[in-house]
Amino acid sequence: MTDQAVSNEHVAGLSDLLHSACLTGRRLTRAELEARRVRGERAAELGVPVREPVRQHFSVAQEALAPLPPAAAGSLLAVLDQAVDAFIEGYERAQLQAVRQEEAKRREFIDDLLYGRSDLGRLAERAERFGLRLSQAHAVAVASGPEPYGDGYPVARGIESAMLTRFAGRQILLTTKDGRLICVAPGDQPDVLAFFAKQAYAATDGGKVAIGRSHPGAGGVVHSYEEALNALDLAERMGLGGPVLHAADLLVYPVLTRDRQAMADLVESVLGPLRKGRGGARSFIDTLTAYFDSGCVATEAARRLSLSVRALTYRLERIHSLTGADPADPVNRYTLQTAVIGARLLDWPDTEA
What we know:
Alpha-Beta Plaits; Arc Repressor Mutant, subunit A; six-stranded mixed sheet; 15 helices; 6 strands; elongated
């Protein structure tokens, strides 16, 4: 279809409607209004700027009005107003539908990307449409806060605006998933994820951000995303401090839990006797955690637990008595600390190993 034909299509039948209105003084019927809306939708689908067909409506009206008496102007303008309004309504309706379809396609792509549920070759093709080249290595950062966040939320919009302003032209994907904020960036651009982490931490009022390692290919995005999620989970279970967690710094934890049964056996064997202590095993686990986290410095561990150094020392002696392992002895310390980490990972003794 030629440009002229497309142009004529926008105002087809309009001249007859205007003449009819001038002769009878009537307004457009419901069917005629819907026909104008359909033409508006068609213009939007063709990508025609709305200003152009609106201008054509007024041109047709001027031509129709020229041979008519001045008294007919009122009726003609009233119908023209109806026609233009219906045309724009149809145009906007088509645009809204297109936006919704695009959002649905984007959400489907993101789900497939983060869960690896699509053919990798096809996924790579779709990724280019959203600004990613999956032939490169990518890393994923995931931010969580005190409340869930979704696309279009002020927090998500603010971070997206800051990111696009700072890194205009970069191949970055910003989205949300399961109430968390997510950024996918090329693996050789750690500054992008570092900036995202800073923005997300501020925007979520002190939330946590985890950054997965860089991995190649479409499957690499899934891998990095899962690493970031696991890091957030570890931070919650282990009480890890710091606003930004790097999966590369936490690799020891997956290693320790790779053989879950072996870890459960270690925890039960080493820490099981603590159940016999006054108050159960939980207070002793907390004591050992504070002691190890403070670098085995009794004064600092006591401060963290709001205890006197004497009370802390008594607890450590009691642990030695119950388990046979001395927290102050380097040889015993490694076994105890590994068992304590395992207990925290397995949520022991609240959940029996």
